[in-house]
Amino acid sequence: MILLIIGVVGKIASGKSTVCRYLKALIEDTEIIDVDSIAKAIYSDEPAVVEDLKKCFGDSICFPEGNVNYNNLALKVFSSRKDLEKINNIMFPKIENRVKKILEEKNNINCSVIDAAVLFDAKLYKLCDHVIWVKSARNRRFKRLLSLCELGDKEIKTRLDGQVINIKEKLVDFIIENNGTLQDLEDSVNKITDKIRSLGSIK
Fold first, then answer.
1. How many CB atoms lie within 10 A of CB 57?
2. Span 174-186, mean pLDDT?
3. Among 178, 179, 195, which Cα is nearest to 130's?
4. Cα separations in angstroms, 127 against 9, 104, 137, 200
5. How far apart are CA 147 and CA 160, in angstroms?
6. What are the backbone dihedrals phi and psi of residue 115, each rounded to the nearest 5 degrees, phi first?
7. Which residues, in sequence order, are bridge partners of residue 113?
């Protein structure tokens, strides 16, 4: 049984994963569910999904041996709202089912943290007791991506401009403005954790 489920949502390179790591360090017996990793597992485990993607976007989204070429796929879907909607229609129900299954199989876990830009789009917010929205200025997200991945300015701009996520603001419990230092971010997570702990939800 999981006592608490926290969803962390935000755009690419906003600092979601860092917030999740801080939560894991602050809350005893916490596990992180990384939805990006789940999506990659689906591509690996379900050949029918890859075939559906190839039908939508062409063979170039895969390497010759058949594995998904994530950079090519990202360039396709982030360059077109219509293509983004196509992949979302394929992947969101499968992501939702995988996350539900993972949560059902957890035993004696104090807290699960769902790291997901698509928290609302894939209906994962319905599983959460609290939702944290991590926001960050576009120029900061650009610099983070530039330092984290081997992509050129044009490719990064395509990803930033092409990402569309739905945020149901009324269902967000906490907002973090991640435009300062890592210490500022950690302090913000500490305050939120103290607030949640004061509600008696976690140890």
1. 19
2. 97
3. 195
4. 13, 11, 28, 18
5. 15
6. -95, 105
7. 6, 32
Q: pLDDT tens-digit profile of 111-127? A: 999 999 999 999 999 99
Q: Are strands 109-115 and 130-135 parallel, antiparallel or unpaired?
A: unpaired
Return the amino acid letter for 103: L
Token pair belonging to 33: 């569910």
**6 or 75, which is more confident?**
6
pLDDT surpassing 80 at residue 201: no
Q: What is the pLDDT of residues 2-29, one digit of tens each?
A: 779 999 999 999 999 999 999 999 999 9
Could you tell me the pTM of the whole model?
A: 0.91
Of the pLDDT bands very low, low, confident and very high (cuts 50, 70, 90), residue 138 is very high
**Whole-angstrom distance, CA of residue 1 vs CA of residue 144:** 36
Give dist(CA 92, CA 164) in Å, integer: 14
For the chain, which domains are there? 2-198 (3.40.50.300)
User: What one-letter code names the amino acid at 173?
Assistant: D
Query: 127 CB contacts (<8 Å, ≥6 apart)?
Result: 5, 7, 99, 100, 103, 114
Of the candidates 78, 70, 44, 43, the residue with the CA atom closest to the CA atom of residue 150: 70
Residue recorded with tokens 């698509």: 118
